[in-house]
Amino acid sequence: MSLRITPLTDPAHGPHGRRLAWLASDADSIPAGTAFLRLFDGGREHLAELDLRVHPAERRKGVGSRLLDTAVATARDNARCCVVAQAEAGSPGDHFLAARGFRKVLTFRFTRLPLADVDTAVLAEIIGRPHPGYRLMSWRGTVPDDLARTFAASRRAMDDMPMDDTDHGAVIWDVDRVRAAAKAVEQRGDHLRTVVAVDASDGSIAGFTELVVPGNGAGDGQHYGTGVLPEHRGHGLGRWMKAESIRQARRDYPDLGGLLTDTADSNAHMRRINDGLGYTPTHTAHKRRLDL
């Protein structure tokens, strides 16, 4: 099969990384596959993340290998130490990555909560249970100015989440970064909802959970992250915040079907929270890593 690999102009460049793209096409200029390579910075300059897709009819013709070779060479040229990629467990993509030397470093468990099945009495009991020394707050879109600094500081709650052998690095968060992340959600037309637990003694944010809802308020929402700072763990704040996030989603988006989340299989604590709130497994995925 005669293949042409064409670099594309990708608009997904930002202050904390950039993304490169390639299109594979045949002799008749018919697209056969794509590859996107995200190059991170801000504490993750060693890392590149690959998203490679080949049309099912064009598989086993060398399309994926050509795209992969191009992306890996580019990662090396940009002084990256490793490339990570993710595929559903047991899928053709998963087998392809394994055959090309990507070793499995993490298993993600994907789950869904059907909002119609939520036990509202149980949810209300979780939310109403006292958490001495803490209170819940929430907002839509960008963090309010008076909470921006403490919210940025609370993001380090994710630094020690179980990531097994991915060598994910530590994302460096500041006020500009949290505002830019919220703006990116707004610009694509979706809704960002954030619930936080506040330390009543000083007004600082002890933990947070984020939910993104499609712009039309239908389909499924996606949890983006839930974290509690190490010094505030052991008080049930993660479950409390997530329950409130579910309550708000049901109240404010009546056409929303469910909520999706993904959790590292090794993150037993968050898995217990999700299981207890009624999330049910849908599939698993493997994150694989190629050392350069």
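^ that was protein a. below is b, sequence first then the tokens
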Amino acid sequence: MTEKTHYSDEELEEFRNIINEKLALAKRDYEQMMKVLMNQDGNDVDDTSPTYKILEEGSAAQSKEEIIQLASRQQKFIAGLEAALMRIKNKTYGIDRITGKLIPKERLRAVPHATLSVESKQNRKK
């Protein structure tokens, strides 16, 4: 049996759904951070996301610098997710960029924007 070199359209669709869900949440959280930075955050009762609560409760104590760092990381995460969607479109999603082998599904479900398997990532750090 030959080793599988790419994920099927059905598998890619599953990953697309996971990524789109994470992307929607990430964008919502990013927008909330930007509102906090611009002092436009109203204390709406519908803010039930844990990230919102942290920002609401901590915004007085948390410096703008820390929120800017969080927003920057969130922006990078969003870009990573969008790049993953592009790889799905190109049917190159889930392929380790160093070894060319498939990244295990478990890893992609946990870190859908991953471009390296855990093994490749660890080898890279050495």
